[in-house]
């Protein structure tokens, strides 16, 4: 492997990491403003740096002032806590979420200077299994954060969180299997490419049209995996203060929050890749737009790639905003209702979806 | 490069495995086991068993070990109390001697056996398609039987772990 | 990136022995259980290594079955541990030896 290839791989990894981090930060702002909009408030609108500079820029507020505040806060480790694990837990919460994005393609291939670059950090032929493996590791941050804090709220939150995450992982995995059966591959770039054709030359053949039920189950299970309202039992503040990260402060607490938002981005990224055509733009092919009726609007290669990446970003962002809307619209479930929904409704639905998908595939040959 | 990487991962695996049986705190033991299983997944990747490596993380690290941690936290187990139970130093010493002897014996056995050298694997080896083809053709009956086993296990676990039934209000 | 089969088998042997020692020296039932999982994994490693040496995936399929059985075993085993803890409030194997007479 030459130096250039290493550089390209590094640049891709860096770009994707930046994408996730920035999207999480922007989402935090969207969430604050969006919640304010829904509740008829103004929301975060000023940051007072050093007590002299009132900056009335909402976005700057959350992007700069919040991290600064969190970074400079005192880091409290509760008495009786397991110091090492208390320190490690936030990292264990963030790490699996960040690496999940490595398998998600954010564009087709880019040909530049004689190099063909696959716009995906890791082209794995077991891509979806990798995603499931990493998301199954995310539970350790929750469990250890709760256990190491030596606090009953945190422990209760951790127990709730781990039970919830394991339960919904099953429904999520089975929903994904329906989609995988449709496309016949686990490779996410291949799945993205398979969604490139159109019905009647007009409607894009996205996964959501093949697998609407799987999308529904996946989205609900995905929101439950991110542990946000209406599934925020592990951190429900009226019951458990902050759940598994009650005893965290400063940057460590911010890491848990970041992992929550990054999980939302990952769920949106997966839903985009599997159900909304990944980086596909309707009617856009590698040489330009193919309009119905045979007309072709040719576009230069770089413009096509740029449109694809923009399309991916916009879709992911739209799905993230949808999750925020859900969060601020629905009330919290009761715990037995959460478990009922996962085991008695989503799981049988996903299984039935698999069965029907299998029958259809066999019938169509 | 693969061989050097293997030696590194193998050394870490042995250290983590020793941590499992030596650490007095059951939660730490479980975490050491998670690390061991994760490193074993890395070994599987080095042996070009990608599918199995992913399953190893999903099933072992992601599900079974979370279950262990969950139970340890549920029972709120802290450090093993050395005063509790009998301290049988002689038996423990014998166990260590026997275990080390077993390791040496197995290692000598492996050295003596001719297992053949691994050539380059065929294309697609260890991927989902190759494993699935074998699983759904040659091993179809055992595969179907495992589903019954899992069902029995689910029913068994629910029956065993539920509290004594008492009259409910509704 | 070829790993000698013997090395993988040696690692498997060492892990298996560690698992055996763990079962013998620890008295906490859950830790004993974890040592058993360690032994299962050591055997899995042998299967994968030998499958690689033969260039066939049969060994990997067996690992798949071992994982399934391990999952079933963990579910039932932990349920038994919870049930016995409810009755005896201990997970110490020496104190759970009533049937020995």
Give short descriptive properties of this protein:
A: 365 residues, mainly alpha, three-stranded antiparallel beta sheet, two-stranded antiparallel ribbon, 13 helices, 9 strands, 7% strand, globular, C: 101 residues, 3 helices, elongated
Strand-and-helix sequence of chain B, N→C? HHHHHH
Helix/strand/pairing category of chain C: mainly alpha
Largest interface: B-C, 88 and 74 residues
CATH secondary-structure class of the largest domain in chain B = Mainly Alpha
Multimeric state: heterotrimer
Report on this model:
The complex is a heterotrimer of chains A (365), B (170) and C (101). Chain A is mainly α. Chain A has one domain (3-364). Chain A contains 13 helices and nine strands. Chain A has a three-stranded antiparallel β-sheet, with no helix packed on it. In chain A, a hairpin with a 3-residue loop joins strand 1 (47-49) and strand 2. Chain A is globular, with a radius of gyration of 22 Å. The two termini of chain A are 42 Å apart. Chain B is mainly alpha-helical. Chain B folds into two domains: 1-80, NADH-ubiquinone/plastoquinone oxidoreductase chain 6, subunit NuoJ (Four Helix Bundle (Hemerythrin (Met), subunit A)), CATH 1.20.120; 123-163. Chain B has six helices and no strands. Chain B has helices at residues 2-22, 26-46, 50-74, 89-112, 128-137, 140-161. Chain B is globular. Chain C is mainly alpha-helical and 101 residues long. Chain C has a domain at 27-90: Helix Hairpins, CATH 1.10.287. Chain C is 77% helix and 0% strand. Chain C is built from three helices and no strands. Chain C has helices at residues 5-25, 29-54, 58-88. In chain C, 55% of the residues are buried. Chain A binds chain B through residues 85, 124-126, 129-130, 132-134, 136-137, 139-140, 143-144, 146-147, 155, 158-159, 162-163, 166, 169, 186, and chain B through 27, 31, 34, 50-51, 54-55, 57-58, 61-63, 66-67, 69-70, 73-74, 127-128.
